[in-house]
């Protein structure tokens, strides 16, 4: 089970439902690649994502994709590419350490605060799993 995805972007947690990447880019698990449209001023700053089943995937920035005519004319955004590294299990303690410096993107969407609260109630050595992710995502 892949969606919803918990994504770390610029030290903020974003919950990405199914179809979210269709509007801004492409998530291709078969090719282990994520491409996104970026604003003129910089990269998306993605670090990792967690699938709904609790599998942790680090992301490796591969760079910007060469501009084509549509980008030069301003019809579409320039794109950047991330490699999706092999998924692995992650403990609640390790994830809590990873989000220690994260903040909420908006007061109306306290995803980081909610994730931190959910992880704090668990043993540090417990592996993140489908059950814990469902509880965090409110499913």
Please provide a written account of the structure.
The protein is 24% helix and 29% strand. It has five helices and seven strands. The chain has a seven-stranded antiparallel beta sheet with strand order 2-1-5-6-7-4-3. Strand 5 and strand 6 (56-64) form a beta hairpin. The longest helix is centred in the C-terminal third of the chain and has 10 residues, at 111-120. It is globular, with a radius of gyration of 16 Å. The two termini are 13 Å apart. The model has no long low-confidence stretch (mean pLDDT 87).
Summarize the structure.
By secondary structure, the chain is α+β, with helices and mostly antiparallel strands. 24% of the residues lie in helices and 29% in strands.
Mean pLDDT rating: 87
Cα shape: globular
Low-confidence stretches: none
In spatial order, strands of the major sheet run 2-1-5-6-7-4-3
Distance between the termini: 13 Å
H/E series: EEHEEEEHEHHH
By helix and strand content, what is the structural category? alpha+beta
Sheet-strand content, in percent, reads: 25-35%
Radius of gyration from the alpha-carbon trace, in angstroms: 16 Å
Largest sheet: 7 strands, antiparallel
The helical percent reads: 10-25%
How many domains would you count in the coordinates? 1
């Amino acid at each position: 089970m892949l969606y919803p995805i918990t994504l770390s972007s610029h030290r903020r947690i974003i919950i990405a439902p199914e179809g979210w990447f269709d509007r801004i880019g492409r998530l291709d698990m078969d090719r282990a690649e994520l491409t996104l449209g970026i604003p003129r001023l910089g990269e998306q700053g993605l670090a990792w994502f967690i699938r709904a089943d609790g599998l942790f995937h680090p992301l490796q920035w591969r760079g910007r994709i060469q501009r084509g005519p549509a980008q030069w004319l301003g019809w579409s955004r320039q794109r950047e590419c991330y490699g999706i590294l092999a998924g692995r299990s992650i403990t609640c303690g390790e994830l809590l350490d990873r989000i220690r410096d994260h903040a909420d993107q908006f007061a109306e969407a306290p995803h980081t605060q909610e994730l931190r609260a959910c992880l704090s109630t668990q043993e540090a050595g417990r592996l993140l799993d489908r059950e814990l992710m469902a509880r965090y995502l409110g499913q």
